[in-house]
Hints:
Layout: E1 16-24, E2 30-34, E3 39-46, E4 49-53, E5 56-60, E6 64-68, E7 74-78, E8 85-92, E9 105-107, H1 110-126, H2 149-167, E10 177-178, H3 183-187, H4 191-202, H5 210-217, H6 221-232, H7 236-254, H8 259-265, H9 271-282, H10 286-290, H11 293-307
Antiparallel strand pairs: 1-8, 2-7, 3-6, 3-8, 4-5, 4-7, 5-10, 6-9
Amino acid sequence: MTYIRTKLHKEIHIDSIITLHYFEYMKDFTFQGEAHDFWEFLYVDNGTVSVRYDDTWMTLNTGDIIFHQPNEFHAIKSIGRNSPNLVAISFLCDSPAMEHFVHKSYTLTNEERSLISHIISEGKNTFSTPMHLPSIEQVKIKAETPFASQQLIILFLELFLITCIRNHPENAVPVSAIPKDSPEKQSTKHNRLERIIQYMEFHICEQLKLPDLCSEFSISRSSLQALFHSEKNCGVIDYFNQMKIQRAKDIIRNGTMNFTEIAYFLSYSSLPYFSKQFKAATGMSPSEYSSSVKGITEALRKNQEENH
């Protein structure tokens, strides 16, 4: 028999890694921006940030990712109530398939978040430079690394990009862009709105109703709703429910309560109702959220240490 070799084509080929970071920023974090001649993506593992690409601002929430093509100016500003956790990975790749990622942003699936976790985990095994310092401009290889750890980083990254292209077709609806207002203008709030939000925060464990707020602040129902729709693009109770979900996410990350305790603490009528509201707000169940990139990465790290 005569066997003939078939050479397989690679759609995505990563030439080299530039940076690999997992940042836990302060909630007032601002990065003024830069442009460089390589690809970069920013994934929000927790919190809310406003990201600029060229002259467009867009808001990214937990689970969202944005890709920056070479020479595209980009900047970041934290705009949420909590400190953001961000993954930033930059790399060289001139594969034509990368055109898919030009001006792309979307919410990642569990599979895609898991792949990022593997990249970060292998990065910790491979690089001596710390991942949490934004000033690092070149990753350095440890003197001793697990077998093929450098290759695994490239393979996981290529698999991540391939998976994204398959899971998010060209006609996918992108994360909402905000082309006109800067984060500074977006974050300007009416004094009354601030007082109402502070009141909500203080009563986060209760079941606030619209009449309660109207009575407390001597404001009509229509005026209160108009204020929140103008400044927050949502209704009053919708915003309060978002605050509850954010508090639940913080507690899950801290690991101080189980899901039943969180539901009771935040005055949800039952655990199933809490889980339903949580999934409606985040796209993930509480257990799925607890398995976000950070959680998966820490679990991978622990398993690898135990194996060694």
